[in-house]
């Protein structure tokens, strides 16, 4: 299982759908479609997206140098 973190590549807005797609083993496009369809239903989907955008850490760079 991969850790839940917003990736640096493959994201459109905040990377929330891309992070969830990596976590659940599906494509980011599929996760975006699921999110858009879920927005047609009543509920706090957009607020949840904003909360995840703020709370999920950004993926660490693989090329970072350690001192």
From TrEMBL:
Coiled-coil ranges from the UniProt annotation: none
Cellular compartment(s): Cell membrane
Membrane topology: Single-pass membrane protein
Domain Phage shock protein PspC N-terminal residue range list: 4-59
One Pfam family it belongs to: PspC
Sorted UniProt keywords: Cell membrane, Membrane, Transmembrane, Transmembrane helix
Source taxon at top rank: Bacteria
Bilayer-spanning residue ranges: 33-56
Primary site of residence: membrane
Family matches, as PANTHER family: PHAGE SHOCK PROTEIN C
Name of the featured protein: PspC domain-containing protein
Organism of derivation: Streptomyces laculatispora
């Amino acid at each position: 299982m991969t850790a839940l973190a917003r990736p640096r590549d493959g994201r459109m807005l905040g990377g929330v759908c891309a992070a969830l797609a990596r976590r659940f083993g599906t494509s980011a496009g599929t996760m975006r479609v699921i999110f858009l369809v879920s927005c047609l239903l009543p509920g706090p989907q957009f607020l949840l997206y904003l909360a995840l955008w703020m709370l999920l850490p950004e993926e660490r760079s693989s090329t970072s140098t350690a001192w």
